[in-house]
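[Meeting: bench + compute handoff]

Bench side (C.D.) handed over the final construct sequence. Compute side (W.E.) agreed to return the predicted structure before the next meeting so the bench team could plan truncations. Sequence as handed over:
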Amino acid sequence: MALQEMGGPLERRRKAVSRAGRILDVLDEVKLALVSGELSLSQLERLTRAVREERAATEDAALEGVLNEIETRAAVELAKLEMARNAGLRVTGESR
């Protein structure tokens, strides 16, 4: 019984570290794409999905704040991509 109780918190911590690692990997990918000017919709969607999954598994107020900031930044970048896409379509439509 005692070993099972010890395994519970340790297992939850291991899973939390794994999820955090996945978010950090996606954030790193997004950062590199932003720097190179090649950010894609799929990268931002993957980041948003990872944040949503982590949010469902956390009860930590500080982590919630960080996730809110990441989610907000992803939404801003998505809006920028949409604006650029719409501007490109208008320019393409006008030149024909």
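W.E. noted at the follow-up: The radius of gyration is 19 Å. C.D. will use this when planning the next construct.
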